[in-house]
Amino acid sequence: MWGHAHRRSRVIVVAALIVATAGLATPASATPTQDDEQTTAETAAVFEGQIIDMADHWGEATACMVWPEALDLPECFRPEAEMDDRIAELEAAVDVLPGVFSVLDRPGGHAATSGTNCSGYLRLYDGTSYSGASLYIRGRYQWFDLSSFNFNNRASSFKIGPCSAYFADLSGGGGSWYPTAQTQAYDVAATMASGWHNDVSSLYII
User: Fold this and answer.
1) Residue 21 confidence (pLDDT)
2) Which residues sit opposite 31 in a β-bridge?
3) pTM (predicted TM-score)
4) Is residue 110 within 8 Å of 97, Cβ to Cβ?
């Protein structure tokens, strides 16, 4: 988890990037409040060098990656293959800069499915059989609200990595939960369980 000082620096960096981005600059006459800046920091993402409001749209991107421990901002890509290359690059960095990230899987291998040696990630797809737009989320012990990533009630298939997960049909883990026996480590589903098509609003990786 990021420290308080780092969160503050992230907000400042994001605000500066947005001001510098054509078409998304804050009007000179407007002075954003702290809440405005925090909201922007929580929903901003990088796509081909530009800042986008990920909660509103992905532009021409088809794959986005949310990895708070490795990235200041989520990153989006046109094809999923480009995202895969970026994930491999970040995973390789742990061998060069040990300790920068929490314990990660090494490429080509699997971590334990529980405990501190488990690095949690999963992918959601808005089409069945792992098709359509994809959202990669990596981070443990926190609820991710999918509305922040424009993926609320869109999941039609998924792939879970080496840590189990919980899916809920309301934000913050509220409401009903997807059958937990079907969201264990390395579970995949080409279609959602009955009644869960386009009905996941938040998720938690154990």
Assistant:
1) 38
2) none
3) 0.72
4) no
Q: CA-CA distances (angstroms) from residue 4 to 10, 22, 40, 60, 93? A: 10, 30, 17, 33, 24
Q: Which amino acid is at 53?
A: D
Tell me the per-residue pLDDT of 112-153, one tens digit each, with 9 for 90 and over: 333 445 679 999 999 999 999 999 999 999 999 999 999 999
Give 91's contacts (C-beta < 8 A, 6+ positions apart): 104, 105, 106, 107
Tokens of 176: 């009903």
3-state secondary structure of 118: coil
Q: Which pLDDT belongs to residue 146? A: 97
- What tokens were used for 89? 């690059």
The count of residues in the chain is 206
In this structure, the strands spanning 63-66 and 131-138 are parallel
Which tokens go with 84? Answer: 């895969």
Binned at pLDDT 50, 70 and 90, residue 184 comes out as very high
Query: 45 and 74 in contact (C-beta within 8 Å)?
Result: yes
Share the mean pLDDT of the chain. Answer: 78
Domains of the chain: 60-205 (2.60.20.10)
Q: Which ranges of the chain does DSSP label H, i.e. alpha helix?
A: 4-20, 34-43, 80-96
Token digits for 54?
Answer: 């990920």
Give me the amino acid identity at 143. Answer: W
pLDDT of residue 42: 75
